[in-house]
Amino acid sequence: MLNCLNSVKYVILIDMDELELFLKYLTSVKGESENTKIGYENDLKQFLSYLENMDMDVLDVGINDAREYVRILLEKYKERSMLRKLSSLRMFYDYLMRKGVIDFNPFIEISLRRNEKRLPSVLSEREVAQLLALKGSDFLDLRDHILFLFIYSTGARISEALSINIDQIEWGNRRIRIKGKGGKTRFLFLNKGIVGELEDYIEKRNRYLMPDSIEEKALFIGKNKKRLSFSTSHLIFDKAKEKLNLNKELSPHTLRHSFATHMMDHGADIRLIQELLGHESISTTQIYTHVTSAKLKKVYDETHPHA
Predict the structure, then answer these.
(1) Predicted confidence band at 297 (pLDDT cuts at 50, 70, 90)?
(2) How far apart are CA 89 and CA 43, in angstroms?
(3) 10 Å Cβ neighbour count for 108?
(4) Which candidate in 143, 181, 205, 262 is catalytic?
(5) pLDDT tens across 93-125, in order?
(6) Could you tell me the pLDDT band of residue 3, with boundaries at 50, 70 and 90?
(7) So what's the pLDDT on residue 292?
(8) pTM for the whole structure
């Protein structure tokens, strides 16, 4: 089993059985040859392994994440192989769209440009403060602000955040019990600052639903007063990036990276970060030590008199 999360609209059990169903779809519906099927199977196993190493779920992948994965592949494979791998990924996400699991394909507009190698995007603490200052004036603006604040405060994956129902919040303990990847249960902890803002948001959320007497359990809701969709959540981040005129990636995973990196910058132990992020292996968490090391080197180069 590669990924397992709670079974709400945005979450899918991606395991070998699911992969087999897709491969059968290739041969029985699309009419692909056995050799083509084998190639697609290898491509997708490689992709799912990459997601595991990057602490991501299939549903976490946005357009920028897709571009980064293709960039990494371009360093290792020639154009002919890349065209097939890209075709595999596009068809796999099309298949998930047909099943109603997702509502957009992050690989659909990806080109084969070769970019320079880079570490995962991380916001500075100042940039996070600017992001959280984008409060706006109506309920949907408030919801966007709370979504940014929630992910940065808890380190949740976007799929986890969108899966949360209000009745999961343990206000007295300031925590939320969730099931993450691999069916592993963990808590998201709420600091004192976010609790007050969450309470205010939920009050306004309930008033937003009230005129139509809609009963919706989801913490985060969309304009249609239903659970916020995965694709809309990425559009929210794209809009914020444009408002801030950022020249770096801004996605839900960027905030999760920033959560872990800033805690490590302020002295948090890597084992604590591992538990908060829900990583099975400490090796996955070590990506944040690389980001912090890069920051340390930058500070050294800028401040040491002989650097």
Answers:
(1) low
(2) 8
(3) 13
(4) 181
(5) 888 888 877 788 899 878 675 444 455 688 999
(6) very low
(7) 66
(8) 0.64
Handedness of CA 85, 286, 157, 45 (dihedral sign): positive
Catalytic residue check, 256: yes
Catalytic residue from among 67, 85, 145, 157: 157
Contact 157, 180 (CB under 8 A): yes
**pLDDT for the residue numbered 16:** 55
Q: Given the residues 145, 234, 257, 279, select the one marked as catalytic.
A: 279
Task: Say whether 143 is catalytic.
Answer: no
Helices and strands: H and E segment counts in the chain:
13, 3
pLDDT of 291 over the 60 cut: yes
Residue 253 among the catalytic residues: yes
Instruction: Please identify which of the residues 93, 95, 208, 288 carries the catalytic annotation.
Output: 288
Contact 65, 251 (CB under 8 A): yes
Tens-digit pLDDT profile for residues 174-198:
999 998 766 778 999 999 889 999 9
Active-site residue identified among 85, 205, 234, 256: 256
Residue 294 has what pLDDT? Answer: 64
Whole-number pLDDT of residue 164: 95
Report the alpha-carbon distance of residue 274 to residue 270 in Å, rounded.
6
Task: Report the C-alpha gap between 263 and 297 in whole angstroms.
Answer: 18
What is the spatial order of strands in the sheet that 169-170 belongs to? Answer: 169-170, 175-179, 185-189
Q: Are 59 and 251 in contact (CB under 8 A)?
A: no
First-to-last alpha carbon distance for the chain, in angstroms, is 48
CA–CA separation, 144 vs 120, rounded Å?
Answer: 23
The verdict on whether 114 is a catalytic residue reads no
- If you write DSSP's letter for every residue of 41-77 in order, what string do you get? HHHHHHHHHHHHHTT--GGG--HHHHHHHHHHHHTTS
